[in-house]
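Narrative of activities, Objective 1.

The group set out to show that a structural description can be obtained from nothing but a protein's sequence at a throughput compatible with the screening campaign. Below is one input-output pair from the validation batch, recorded exactly as produced.
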Amino acid sequence: MRNVDLRELALKKVKITGNVIGKFGTFEIEQMYKNNTKEVLEVGYTFPIVETATVVGFEIKAGDKILKGKCKEKGEAKREYQQNIVKGNSAYMMEQETANIFKISVGKIDKDEEVTLSLIHISEPTRLRCISY
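Output recorded for this entry:
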């Protein structure tokens, strides 16, 4: 398995949904990728979230599997991730690097496999403007 940057995968779809009630909103970011290479891949990427946001959910859909994230101590989570990669199993991990920067690692994406990452967070939609037609 080759460790690569997420840009080697084809981004197939991005969907952002939200529900605002009063001063707070729940937002879900869903990204679908496809491994169009001829290799099994391990990928990772970092991304920002508003500093005042709280992540409340992380889910991966890969093939016919749906895996929901569980919070663990950082060292334990990294050990479990690496152990599964070494065994040849699929593994997924999200970790907070700074107050507003997160990293997602996705291991063992088979050739032609589609993977959908879903991240749910709660925040104040201070810059959100709603319009209707």
